[in-house]
Amino acid sequence: MRNQFRVHAALFFVAVIYAANYSLSKDVMPRYMGPFGIVTLRIVGAVLFFSLVKYFVAPQDKIIGRADNLRSILCGICGIGVNQLLFFSGLNLTSPISASLLQTIAPIVVVIASAILLSEKITLPRVLGIAVGAAGAASLILSRNAQAAIYPHATLGNIFILANATVFGLYLVLVQPLMRKYHAFTVLSRIFLVGAFIAVPFGWREALTADYASFPLYIWLEIGYMVVFLTILAYLLNNWALKYASPALLGVYIYLQPVLAVLIAVSLGKDHLTWGKAGQAVLIFLGVWLVSQKPKGAKVPAVPLEAVQD
């Protein structure tokens, strides 16, 4: 019972961490630092931390074989480098609520990628779910509302977020064999290192030229939050919870994140919830729910939760 409470507490805490990021990031970018600079700080911090921990907890564990090394490179590109560049570029241009809703498209991409790469069966409810979810996402991406003056490039930002969810859905499928075969810190240190080679060339200039002397205390705290909590702590808690939590329970907390993001964004005055966004959210949630229904007799894969977020 105590361990079950800890799992729920860990998953809820991770959901809050991710949900708060949608609003807190708005304070930092683009006024104090560009999106690529933030990505650079996050990834470099994670590379240093996970590589150091891996040295102590799994020094002999190494990814071997051409196939696994190639897979780890693809995971680093999709799950870390390209994923984070797209996410923060999109969040910089669109509203926190829109970004959080579009993120839930990732499970739909997982089903499509699994069907293509793993020959997993696509049932009629799943086809319907893909269509409904796509309709909700398209409606959200193309909609224009009263916040158009605040986010004049919201459509482009929404497209970036959708692309982010797409490459992350692909990463979900690619990373499963590695997580099952190697120590978690071995995989994390490798994919973050690969991600650094992708992201740092885009963001090092923004990270180095930022006027750090002008940063107020709350900006320093929010940057620290994104490096320590959003990147390192969330990955650690997710890895631990994955040992005890069922895929169904993980799904509940994935749905909870945009709800928390809406509450946080509205309470901080970063965004406004409209009836239009509420309707788009219903379509997306319905589509994801339909897609998540497994065919009768099918085994439920152990999806690594740390790959479900940014």
From TrEMBL:
It comes from Hymenobacter antarcticus. Keywords: Cell membrane, Membrane, Transmembrane, Transmembrane helix. This is EamA family transporter. InterPro entries: AA-Vitamin_Transporters, EamA_dom, EmrE-like. It comes from the Bacteria. It is found in: Cell membrane. Residues 10-140, 156-292 form the EamA domain. It holds the Pfam family EamA. It is a multi-pass membrane protein. The chain crosses the membrane at residues 35-57, 69-91, 97-117, 124-142, 154-175, 187-205, 217-237, 249-268, 274-291.
